[in-house]
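Just scan my protein:

——
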Amino acid sequence: MTEQSQPREIAFPRLLDRTMRILAQRDHSEEELRRKLRQSVQRTAFMQQSEPEIITDAQLDKVIGWCHENGWLNDARFTERFIQSRSRKG
C-alpha cells in the first residue's frame, strides 16, 4: 500500500518571513494579505513540486495579530494610501 503523507503546517517564522516580504513592498488590507499568504504557499509547493504546506486559520490569525501589534498592518492606513494613490491617477 502507498502511504499518503499528511500536509504539514508551515512554521510560524517562515510564515512571518513571507508576511514581512509582502508588506515591505506596499501596504495591504488584512483580507488581501490573508489571500496572498495562502497563494504564496500554494505557488511554492507547485514550483518545487513538493507536498504543499498548509496554513491554518489559527496560524493566519497569529501572524495577522503580530502584524497589527507591531504596526506592520493597518487597514485604516491602507485605505488612506489607496485613496491617495487612486486620486493621483485621476
